[in-house]
Amino acid sequence: MKLNAYDTAAAAGHAAAESAAGILRDAIRDRGHAVFVAATGNSQVEFLKHLAAAPGIEWGRTTMFHLDEYIGIPADHPASFRRYLRERFLGRVPVGTVHLVAGDAPDLAAELVRLNDLIRRAAVDVAFIGIGENGHIAFNDPPADFATETPFIVVDLDEACRRQQVGEGWFPSMAAVPRQAVSMSVRQILRAARIVCTVPDARKAQAVKTAVEGEIGPLAPASILRTHADCRMFLDRAAAALLSR
Hints:
- The protein has seven helices and ten strands.
- The chain is α/β, with parallel strands linked by helices.
- The strands form two sheets. Strands 1-10-9-6-2-3-5 form a seven-stranded parallel sheet, with helices on both faces. Strands 4-8-7 form a three-stranded antiparallel sheet.
- Helix 1 (about 10-30) packs across helix 2.
- The longest helix has 23 residues, at about 10-30.
- The radius of gyration is 17 Å and the shape is globular.
């Protein structure tokens, strides 16, 4: 894992976007196409803003997979990750092929089959992710499933995860936060050739410290990123504050 720390969240997001843009440009140059995974949430706002503005990316020659989505909320819900991506990213760049997670699909089992079939036939060049306050990656809350090879799975959201969603203003109360989501699995995230992990904010400092310096295991889901051959983590000063190095 390569750590990069910056004074502000904006600077960290900008640097992460420059790294991500280089990966996409290289993949398009070398193979004619790039496949990437996009995350959402407050940690990705600056990153996606700068990535959308990055020069020289032939977006029409890219395919995007969506990292996760709540079960049971419509695509126009204020907290929907599909809405987030459309408003903050897909409305700014003409991505060639987009595979969003329909968490409100009438037949959720069929939606999982569709997504899993699509991503099994794709070689992911880079996954853009963050880390939750509880150390989750995607919606793989602790104790995360490190074993399943299934690309997209249904997961239960723990109280800390649901509390974060209220704290960030996505939902008015805990009662309004869904208890389950469709999430890309840990092993599927690790299948990406590269990972760009953007983690700003003091609220994430303990999760960052545990991921970087603690024991690798399901109780600290983000710790598994240390086993990846090319994971680049971009932090602001607040998120890096508890690191010993």
